[in-house]
Every structure is written in C-alpha cells, then in structure tokens.
Amino acid sequence: STGRFILLVCSVLSMPPTRQRQKNITAILGQNIVLPCRAADSKPVIVLDWTRSNPGLQGVFLFRDNTDFDNQHEQFKNRVELQDRQMKNGDVSLVLKNVTAADRGTYKCRIIQRGIVSAATPICIINLDFIKSRKSIVSDCLDQSFQQFPLLFTLLLNSFLEFVNTMRLIAINRD
After folding, report:
1. Does domain 2-132 correspond to CATH entry 3.40.50.2020?
2. Taking the model in full, what pTM does it have?
3. pLDDT of 55-77, one tens digit each?
4. What is the pLDDT of residue 142?
5. Which of 122, 146, 155, 173 is the Cys-Cys partner for 108 at CB 3.0 to 4.6 Å?
6. Ramachandran area for residue 72 (φ above 0: left; ψ -120 to 50: alpha; else beta)
7. Contact present, 130 and 28 (Cβ < 8 Å)
8. In this protein, which residues make up the domain named Ig-like (predicted)?
9. Which of 109, 110, 101 is nearest to 128 (CA)?
10. Do 59 and 4 meet the contact criterion of CB atoms below 8 Å apart?
C-alpha cells in the first residue's frame, strides 16, 4: 500500500502535529452515519487516509491524487464515501453506510495538504459505538430513571413532610 507508505514517510518528516479533534459518536444499526472531520485550513488535500484501529490497523478509505483506492478492508468496500468529493473548506468527513455492529471502533483521519507537511498525527479521532434503534435510547433512559425512582420518591416525601411541618409551625405561631 504505497499511499500509506508515502503518508508514513511524510509523517516522519513532519512539522509539529496539528491539534487532534476527538469525538464519540453513536450510530443506529442499519443507518448511515457521518464521521465528521475538517482540515484546519482549505488548502487542497493531496492524501486522505481514514483507518480504524481495532483490532489492528484497517484501511477504511484512501484518497490520493484525486483517486480513491480499493486497498481497504473488505468490511468497508462499497460502504464508505466522502461527504463532499471536492473537500471544500477542508471537509474530509466520511459517510459510513448501513452501520453494523462490526463497525464499532476508533477511526482516525490523516491528511497531507499542498504546502503543509504534517501527517504524523491524525486530525480527527472518532470513537464509534452503536445502538439497535431509536427505541433503545428511550428504553435505556427509562430503565435508568426507574432505577433511581426509590431515591427520588424518598427525596420528594422528605421535602413534602418538611413543608407540612413548616406550615404547621406557621399556623401555630399565628394563633
């Protein structure tokens, strides 16, 4: 994989790394998800390399000299594409189609831009997790709420009893 070799050589010669942006994203199984990433400036991107690092390094998407390369892990074939093919304003976000449980992991984006030598450090790191459906978000929330119900009930009861006691004292003081 010549593209990754060039990226490695450039990274050894690189200037101080740019600031990484790390995000946690939760996808819904079967839907498409955008892995958002933007270069610090809008200079043309010469090399763009998205990888997933668990288990081991897997090629997700490689773009070099205006060409997409097919040397990607089988799991991602025909399932990834750039959100903006022209990468306007440094947008190097990747669309992952039909999310599966196997897509969970840490994704990293590295770029080389014309006139900028800094590919050692990923510009974006995305930790992708998944849920089965939107319903499971509500279900998980309700489960957690009901687990807290006894505590909430006790707090409300104590507050109510304190209020009643305060009102009783006020009524006694008026008489």
Report:
1. no
2. 0.64
3. 777 899 998 877 777 678 889 98
4. 54
5. 122
6. beta
7. yes
8. 16-111
9. 101
10. yes
Task: Supply 39's token pair.
Answer: 């270069």
Beta carbons within 8 Å of 1's beta carbon, 6+ residues apart: 59, 62, 69, 71
CB hemisphere CA count around 76 (13 angstroms): 22
Give, for 21, the enclosing helix (H) or strand (E).
strand 21-28
Lookup: tokens for 27: 């996808």
Residue length, the chain? 175
| Residue-range domain boundaries for the chain | 2-132, 137-174
| Pair 149, 162: CB distance under 8 Å | no
User: What DSSP element (H or E) covers 150?
Assistant: helix 149-174
Q: Is 111 within 8 Å of 92 (Cβ atoms)? A: yes
Angle between helices 134-147 and 149-174 (to 10 degrees): 50
Alpha-carbon distance of 121 to 17, in angstroms, equals: 6
